[in-house]
């Protein structure tokens, strides 16, 4: 094994061990140790969902006959055709047919994911979020939406299309359009990563940079 290969192997081993140790502590009575913001920043560098996992999940769902579209951070990077940051999870939009979600749940469970919880907020365009975790630290959020209603239904005029094709590691992938992504990044308190994604989307669409006053 060459020096470079050895370094990559050690890096992967360290990341994997770090993920396991973090999750053990998080689930134990010592969970308070990993809640400070500094530890959370370290967590963001360790617990993330890589490109290969995104592609693997898309392939598994396609094999099961399920159509899904990338949203969130991975959706933005797919539109750009390059990865701009580490992503904590992969957000996947599907139709809100209950039987469709059951199919997705079966696929994820077979792959070793476990349902962590479900969040519902009727005030936002994507009210339902089903959160799935894997022991590797990878996370998938399944977002059922009404595909026959705005803003997810095409307007029929050739503009305002809700879906697009992006690329991850050179492979074409289905994703939410840049225009719809911008719309979905409104109506809630923006985090640093949200500001990062919005800036990329606006640059992608050749829109002027948003400026705020203090």
Please give the number of β-strands: 7
CATH architectural label of the largest domain:
2-Layer Sandwich
Shape: globular
Distance between the termini: 55 Å
Strand order of the largest sheet: 1-2-5-4-3
CATH topology of the largest domain: Beta Polymerase, domain 2
Helix content: 40-55%
Model regions low in confidence, pLDDT < 50 over at least 5 residues? 38-42
| Biggest beta-sheet profile | 5 strands, mixed
Approximate strand percentage: 15-25%
What is the arithmetic mean of pLDDT? 82
Based on CA atoms alone, the radius of gyration comes out at 18 Å
Helices and strands in order:
Blueprint: H1 3-26, H2 37-46, H3 51-63, E1 69-71, H4 72-80, E2 90-95, H5 98-110, E3 114-120, E4 128-133, E5 139-145, E6 163-168, E7 171-176, H6 178-184, H7 192-204
Parallel strand pairs: 2-5
Antiparallel strand pairs: 1-2, 3-4, 4-5, 6-7
Helix pairs in contact: 4-7, 6-7
């Amino acid at each position: 094994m060459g020096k470079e290969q050895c370094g990559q192997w050690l890096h992967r081993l360290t990341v994997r061990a770090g993920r396991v140790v973090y999750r053990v502590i998080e689930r134990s009575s010592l969970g308070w140790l990993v809640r400070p913001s500094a530890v959370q920043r370290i967590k963001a560098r360790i617990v993330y969902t890589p490109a290969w996992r995104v592609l693997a999940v898309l392939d598994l769902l396609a094999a099961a006959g399920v159509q899904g579209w990338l949203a969130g951070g991975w959706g933005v990077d797919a539109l750009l055709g390059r990865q701009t940051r580490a992503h904590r999870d992969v957000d996947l939009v599907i139709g809100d047919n209950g039987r469709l979600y059951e199919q997705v749940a079966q696929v994820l469970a077979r792959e070793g994911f476990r349902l962590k919880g479900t969040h519902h907020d009727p005030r936002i365009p994507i009210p339902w979020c089903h959160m799935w975790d894997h022991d590797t630290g990878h996370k998938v959020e399944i977002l059922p939406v009404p595909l026959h209603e705005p803003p997810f239904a095409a307007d029929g005029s050739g503009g305002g299309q809700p879906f697009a094709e992006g690329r991850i590691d050179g492979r074409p992938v289905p994703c939410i359009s840049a225009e719809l992504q911008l719309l979905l990044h409104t109506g809630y308190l923006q985090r640093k990563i949200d500001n990062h994604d919005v800036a990329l989307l606006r640059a992608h669409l050749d829109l002027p940079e948003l400026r705020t006053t203090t």
